[in-house]
Each structure stands twice: as C-alpha cells, then as structure tokens.
Amino acid sequence: MDTFKISDLAKEFDITTRSIRFYEDEGLLQPERKGTMRIYHRRDKVRLKLILRGKRLGFALAEIRELFELYDTHQGDSQLTKMLKIIDEKEAVLKRQLEDINTLLEDLSVARRRCEDALGHKKAS
After folding, report:
1. What is the mean predicted confidence (pLDDT) over 93-118?
2. By the 8 A CB rule, do 36 and 42 touch?
3. Potential cystine with 28: which of 16, 23, 45, 53 (Cβ 3.0-4.6 Å)?
C-alpha cells in the first residue's frame, strides 16, 4: 500500500506542511498516526489533490467538506440530489466567470492593439 509522509505530499503539491495540517484540522484529511508521525494513504493524497483543485476553482472549504461528506456516506437519492445541486450551482458560477474572463481578455486585446497602433504612429512620425 502506498503511504506518504507529510513532507512528501507538501513537496509533490508545492504547499506547506502547515497547509496540510490545516486541512487535517478542518476534518478534510484523516492520516494514520504512529506516535507523532502522520502517515498518509492514497485516499488522503487523492483528497488533497481534490481540495487544492476545488480551491483553485473557487470552492470554499465548507463546500469541499460537504461534497466529501456526501461522497463518503451511503448515497441515497436525497444526498445525490443535493450533490447535483451543489455541482450545478458551482458550474453556473464558473460559466459566468468564464464569460467574464473571455470578455475581459477581448477588452485587453483591443486595448493592446490601440496602444501598439499609437506607438506605431509615433515611431512613423
């Protein structure tokens, strides 16, 4: 079975060991303990990867925890429905953000062209 030390995970994901301990304190990771040493398993590594990805996508830790809890329990219809609602809501937010980003990128391109054109006219003069 693959096991990892906290320093292994910190190095692999380019985060601090303090961050990993914080996620543990928040109940998102549950490493095995041997004395004072934390031993992380493959499940912890996958969860850490999902936590970091979720944060990059704008999920709050509470939302990530809720998704983990829904996933970890026996998934009845109401839990699956709730999970789908969370996913749908986040998907809608991300799509709006993507539209905003694309609009901003277009605006920046126009501004860049105008600046370059203005500089080109000054050099030609």
Report:
1. 95
2. no
3. 23
38 and 77: one domain? Answer: no
Q: How far does the chain reach from its first CA to its final CA, in angstroms?
A: 71
Residue range 30-79, pLDDT digits in tens: 999 999 899 999 999 999 999 999 898 888 899 888 888 877 776 677 77
87-111 burial code (b ≥16 CB/10 A, e <16): eeebeeeeeeeeeeeeeeeeeeeee
Predicted TM-score (pTM) of the model is: 0.67
| Cβ–Cβ < 8 Å for 19, 55 | no
Same domain (yes/no): 7, 52: yes
Asked whether residue 33 is domain-assigned, the answer is: yes
With a cut of 90, say whether residue 1 has pLDDT above it. no
User: For the CA atoms of 105, 111, 117, 119, what is the dihedral angle to 10 degrees?
Assistant: -120
| Whether residue 35 is found in the same domain as residue 10 | yes
Can you tell me the distance from the alpha carbon of 70 to that of 95, in angstroms, rounded to the nearest whole number?
24
Q: Which segments of the chain are extended strands (E)?
A: 3-4, 32-34, 37-41
Average pLDDT over the chain, rounded to an integer? 89
